[in-house]
Amino acid sequence: MTSPSRRAFTTAAVASLLVSCGGGGGGGRAGGQPATARPSTSASTDASTPPSSRSSAKATHALGRSVPVSLQIPAIQVDTRVMQLGLASDGTVQVPPITANDEAGWYRHSPTPGQTGPSVILGHVTVGDYGDGVFRHLAGLHRGDRIVARLENGTAAVFGVTSVRTVAKSDFPTDDVYGDVGRPELRLITCGGTLTDDGYLDNVIVFAALSAESP
């Protein structure tokens, strides 16, 4: 069960993400339409299984704590540095700034990639007049695609995608994303769906599990 303090972090993270994605839409910019995303029945059914069931799967050996410094997703040509994101003064989670050199951001109140639990990394789908965001093509991932989080200690946590979900922001699956799990997992989150004057209507969420490739 998610503790009250964990749930408070979760609520802040979701609220912040919804606002930031809308702000990054770059309305009127050429090429500002969101990537085509799958329906909420995604690339696999794994993410629709309750977290308690997923955590009973055969565990991959967890890695020690080390913060992520970069992220590679070969299937969608992502190779980005990873900044750390904390809490803003209003209690919401910080998000990567809207800049030309767009980077992903790891939510530092989540486990580091490879530790037991869900490590959460956020990224923009678009960055206003600067063009595509680092997670522009996140919805195009498929089950089994490889994700590599390179860590500060020089090792790498290698994950395999288990599912990709596109959900309405009003139906964000808080417990599935931030809830406790018994193995090392990864969540990549961005915006998706239709771009309106108020921003994107949906969130794209990639669920991944640590691979035996990891040390």
Short description:
13% of the residues lie in helices and 32% in strands.
What does this structure look like?
By secondary structure, this protein is α+β, with helices and mostly antiparallel strands. The chain has one domain (4-210): Sortase (Sortase, Chain: A), CATH 2.40.260.10. An 8-stranded mixed beta barrel has the order 1-2-3-4-7-8-6-5. It has helices spanning 4-23, 51-54, 174-178, and strands at 68-73, 78-85, 104-107, 117-122, 146-151, 156-168, 184-196, 199-210.
Count of distinct strands: 8
Mean pLDDT: 78
Strand order of the largest sheet: 1-2-3-4-7-8-6-5
- Envelope shape: globular
Decide which structural class fits the backbone: alpha+beta
What is the count of structural domains? 1
Task: Please give the radius of gyration in angstroms.
Answer: 16 Å
Number of helical runs?
3
Beta-strand residue fraction = 25-35%
Layout: helices, strands, pairs:
Layout: H1 4-23, H2 51-54, E1 68-73, E2 78-85, E3 104-107, E4 117-122, E5 146-151, E6 156-168, H3 174-178, E7 184-196, E8 199-210
Parallel strand pairs: 2-3, 4-7
Antiparallel strand pairs: 1-2, 1-5, 3-4, 5-6, 6-8, 7-8
